[in-house]
Amino acid sequence: VLSSCSRAEPACEVCEGAEEMTEPLKQCTDWLRAYFCDPAMTASLPVPAFHHPLLQRDSFTRQVLWTLLRDVKCGEAVSYKQLAGLAGNGRAARAVGGAMRSNPIPIIIPCHRVIRSSGQSGNYGGGNLMKEWLLSHEKLRKEKAA
Predict the structure, then answer these.
(1) Domain range for residue 119?
(2) Cα separation of 108 and 145, whole Å?
(3) What CATH number should be reported for the domain holding residue 86?
(4) Domains of the chain: total
(5) Can you tell me the mean pLDDT for 7-12?
(6) Where is the signal peptide (predicted)?
(7) Does 81 map to a domain?
(8) 72 found inside a domain
(9) Residue in 5, 15, 37, 111 annotated catalytic
(10) Residue 30 is assigned to a structural domain of this protein
């Protein structure tokens, strides 16, 4: 069962079948609860096992997504071009955009942290307001922790 972060925030609960959850699903729920309560805490949690085919085959998209997950920390942002460089091909900014569009597990693989070189947020599959909220959420939590 997931509990809320604090009384000021909405409760997060898994009501049905919590006792039957597999370990990877428990890891995902723990990770998501941590993200919404204290995003920086996710760095200390194990990354849930991902079995999506996109993350299994060797490709630039996979490299970009794993690089993003591993190297761009909570409260940080990186440009498409910078992420392309981190993933091994600095001239592949458009391919990074494609990787973000095909991300099968947004929030856990934080594609909302990828922004335009101009500093503008850019697009997001969940909508630009959601992207702005996620970035703001991380920034506010990081400031509270400091």
Answers:
(1) 51-138
(2) 21
(3) 1.10.10.10
(4) 1
(5) 51
(6) none
(7) yes
(8) yes
(9) 111
(10) no
